[in-house]
C-alpha cells in the first residue's frame, strides 16, 4: 500500500493503467482488447478497444470522492434521461456479476477503486478557431431539457449527490475540490484579489437564493 497522492505523476499513471487493465477481467470483453488513457482529472477515463472495432469507455473513480451510492445515483439519472428521450447518455455495461459498478484494486492502492464501463459514444471536441455559436445553442437546448427533467423527476429514495453551492465550491470549510487559497500560484496579492471576488460571489449567491425554481439537481 502506498500514499497515492505522494507519488509522482508518472507513477500514478502507471498504477492507474495497471488498475484499468485489471478491471477488464470483470467484464465479458474480448481477451485482446487494448486500454488507452483518454484523460485524468476527477476520474481516470480509458478507451477500451477490440480488434474488430468495438469500443467502450472505462472510468476509474477517484478514491473517497463519490460513494458507491452516489455513483449508482448518477447512473440512475443518466438512465432515466436516456429512456425518456431527454438526451442521449452513455449506456453502462454490467460486469460478469450483473452489477454496473465494479471494483478493481492494485497492490499500491490503499483500497480497490470503483469502476464503471460504458458503451462508446462517438463524437469530437471543437477545434481551435471553430465556430461555436451553433453547438452552444444545442448545448443550451439540452441543458434546458435536463433542468425541466430534474425538477419533475421522482428520484429513488436512496438517491444522493454532491451539493454545489458557495460553501462547497469557494467556501473555507468544506469545498469539494479543496480551498482555492491552497491553489498553485496563489500569492498574497492574488489571495487578496480572489478573496474580494469570492466574497462578492457569496453575497450574490445568497441574494439569489436556493428556491426550487433556481437550485436543484445538476450534472457537470
What does this protein look like?
By secondary structure, the protein is α+β, with helices and mostly antiparallel strands. The protein folds into two domains: 4-119, Phosphorylase Kinase, domain 1; 162-220, no CATH class. It is built from five helices and six strands. It has helices spanning 9-23, 68-83, 133-152, 166-169, 188-208, and strands at 34-40, 44-49, 55-60, 92-93, 102-104, 113-119. Strands 1, 2, 3, 4, 5 and 6 form a six-stranded antiparallel beta sheet that branches. A hairpin with a 5-residue loop joins β2 and β3 (55-60).
Give the overall silhouette.
globular
CATH topology of the largest domain: Phosphorylase Kinase, domain 1
The total tally of domains equals 2
User: What proportion strand?
Assistant: 5-15%
Secondary structure tally: strands: 6
What count of helical segments does DSSP give? Answer: 5
State the CATH class of the largest domain: Alpha Beta
Low-pLDDT runs = none
Q: Average pLDDT value?
A: 94
Main beta-sheet strand count, sense and barrel state: 6 strands, antiparallel
**Whole-Å distance between the termini?**
32 Å
Helical content class:
25-40%
CATH level-four homologous superfamily name of the largest domain:
Phosphorylase Kinase, domain 1
Report the radius of gyration as a whole number of Å: 20 Å
What is the succession of H and E elements? HEEEHEEEHHH
**CATH architect. name of the largest domain:** 2-Layer Sandwich
